[in-house]
């Protein structure tokens, strides 16, 4: 945030406070009256009426694919408005410096200068109603939409904001492996005449009231730490390894056939899935879950032997993605790379990581001949010149070749394997 005029377009961000217009600050009222171009994040707030007919972003909440997409769209729209008009006012519920992700995105954008005007937040009323000192208690504030990740490993005390939908409360309830023997407090519409403060057992978090954008959850303590959903699956499978005789006897090698079967079932589900209508989405989700189960199973076996855990698998994946996408992790490092550069960097990283002398090492020999040939060709020429050929034409050509091989008494699988092996030898020699 900068209060110094540096010539950039300006976004003046004011807070509407936690309740009605009577809790607005004088500074917020002055900015609302001064700035001609005004925007409000949502009209579903008791103080939003002070903005008159100023446009809101409520329509984005229904149109976007996720809440994070909503936040990004709001920030982009505000930047565009600021560039067009030179200055725009943006009014948000509560305070702009408390749990307001759109403001975080604006502050990260160098195209505009953001000026924050602090206001009373829902936190001030929350501490007053609960009668606690958050500093003394060491309270952590987390977003209900990101509870599983932001609260992972925590035992409380936690104040969960943005509990604006029953699904959010359900996800919070299910984020702990075993139902805690504790009471929590739902706080809703604090500062308004119809505010509600209800203490409930953990199992009733999502069954007590209809949550809205002014709903939060107070968790004073937990018997066990919060864990994301994948952690619950991991813990369950470890228990099943002890209780289920079949699961107890499985090894990495004995599970190979199931991993292959589940992979093929995922591929079939993808073929049947229509991304435009969503038809087949449930089946694809289910099959992906079965495939993930295999990853968790292998990780549990390895954890018993002391080699690695599911956490190591996830952490390794995270570090690998960071290493292979530096342009995303550190976008200021330079110009974004092109597709060819990205592919080259990916392959080079794999060679370094695995100690391979060639990009053609590590291509599984167990792959079907056609799949292995395709993989070799992709590595040899990652961005080939387009060829005018559709699926039906390709299928007919392959079917004709299979028929000719059959008529000649030849094995097309073996023939293609030999040709691919020869190609790898030639390509490796050229790497040289």
What does this structure look like?
By secondary structure, the chain is an alpha/beta fold. The chain folds into four domains: about 110 residues, Cobalt-precorrin-4 Transmethylase, domain 1; about 100 residues, Tetrapyrrole methylase, C-terminal domain (Methyltransferase, Cobalt-precorrin-4 Transmethylase, Domain 2); about 100 residues, MazG-like (Helix Hairpins), CATH 1.10.287.1080; about 70 residues, no CATH class. Helices cover about 50% and strands about 10% of the residues. The chain is built from 18 helices and nine strands. It has a five-stranded mixed β-sheet, with no helix packed on it. A four-stranded parallel β-sheet has the order 2-3-1-4, sandwiched between helices. Helix 7 links the parallel strand 5 and strand 6. It is globular. It starts with 9 loop residues before the first strand and ends with a helix. About 25% of the residues are buried.
Provide a concise account of the structure shown.
With 432 residues, the protein is of the alpha/beta class.
Give the N-terminus to C-terminus distance in angstroms: 53 Å
Query: What is the domain tally?
Result: 4
Number of helices: 18
User: Could you give the order of the helices and strands?
Assistant: EHEHHEHEHHEHEHEEEHHHHHHHHHH
